Amino acid sequence: MMRYEGTEKLADETACARVRADLKMCLLQSDCCKKERKLPRECLSRQDGSVPDECFAIRNTFFECKRSLLDNRQRFRGRKGY
């Protein structure tokens, strides 16, 4: 899996952009997208083992990051994610 850290610049500077990029790369490198030629959105809904569990963990992290944007407590605790 590709991780965006430190020196690399993403074109997307919004909140949760790094988690979104990691999720995108994880899905695009999965067998579901490579071998079966499915869209990443279709691969997220599949539970047949063609998508690694790591991608589902990143999806959960992305959800928590987006949810923390709406939570007023994030002012004190910081944004969830990486």
From TrEMBL:
The keyword Plastid does not apply. It comes from the Eukaryota. GO terms for cellular component: mitochondrion. One of its GO terms (biological process) is mitochondrial respiratory chain complex IV assembly. InterPro entries: Cyt_c_oxidase_assmbl_Pet191. Keywords: Disulfide bond. Involved in an early step of the mitochondrial complex IV assembly process. Belongs to the PET191 family. This is Cytochrome c oxidase assembly factor 5. It comes from Aedes albopictus.
